[in-house]
Amino acid sequence: MNLANKITLARIFLVPIIMFLLLINVDLKPLTFSDFSITWNQILAALIFIVAASTDGLDGYIARKNKIVTNLGKLLDPLADKLLVAAVLISLVEMDKVDAWIAIVIISREFAVTGLRQIALLEGRVLAASKWGKWKTAVQITMIIALLLNNFPFALLDFRFDLISSWAAALITVYSGVDYFVKNKNLIPLSE
């Protein structure tokens, strides 16, 4: 269990904490100014999410730099990413902050690409993250932070950045998923 894997595990262990903060109603007076209001739970959940999301690049960097890439890390890293995003999206749907169809599109794409990666592994190939996959991750994280913070600071300007980023995340998620399948169509057996 090296440092990179410990960081990845920490990301996994932060998931239930974030969900608890988002889904359990703690009766604290919300932070309010002007027409904007946000619960302390959401602020704390957003901060923890930002820390967790930022460790994604850190664990991989440490593993590569120190030449401590392990099979466990290769398994846990994408699992941690998917758990973090899926859990927060499901929580945001429950909180009525994002449409369920957007969460379904994002989570479905993750399952589909993971399945394609598994097929590639069985063929002895590894599918590296594409530039579209990296953009997808960045846009999804931006969207989630905007939703967790009730569209702050854009809400003060009456600008629906949260809505725009949700649509952008859905579109780039679909595009990046299609891109993976088109580029790797030779992995999909059309007949046995």
Automatic annotation (TrEMBL):
Keyword Transmembrane: yes
PROSITE patterns (UniProt xref): CDP_ALCOHOL_P_TRANSF
InterPro entries in the cross-refs: CDP-alcohol_PTase-I, CDP-OH_P_trans, CDP-OH_PTrfase_TM_dom, CDP_ALCOHOL_P_TRANSF_CS, Phosphatidylglycerol_P_synth
The organism's place on the tree of life at top rank: Bacteria
EC number(s) on file: 2.7.8.5
Cellular location(s): Membrane
Membrane-spanning ranges: 7-26, 38-63, 137-157, 163-182
UniProt main location, coarse: membrane
Topology versus the membrane: Multi-pass membrane protein
Keywords: Lipid biosynthesis, Lipid metabolism, Membrane, Phospholipid biosynthesis, Phospholipid metabolism, Transferase, Transmembrane, Transmembrane helix
Pathway per the UniProt entry: Phospholipid metabolism; phosphatidylglycerol biosynthesis; phosphatidylglycerol from CDP-diacylglycerol: step 1/2; Lipid metabolism
Top-tier EC class: transferase
Catalytic activity: a CDP-1,2-diacyl-sn-glycerol + sn-glycerol 3-phosphate = a 1,2-diacyl-sn-glycero-3-phospho-(1'-sn-glycero-3'-phosphate) + CMP + H(+)
GO molecular function: CDP-diacylglycerol-glycerol-3-phosphate 3-phosphatidyltransferase activity
Entry-linked NCBIfam families: pgsA
Record-stated family: Belongs to the CDP-alcohol phosphatidyltransferase class-I family.
Described purpose of this protein according to its UniProt entry: This protein catalyzes the committed step to the synthesis of the acidic phospholipids.
UniProt name for this protein: CDP-diacylglycerol--glycerol-3-phosphate 3-phosphatidyltransferase
Organism of derivation: Paenibacillus mendelii
Lineage of producing organism: Bacteria, Bacillati, Bacillota, Bacilli, Bacillales
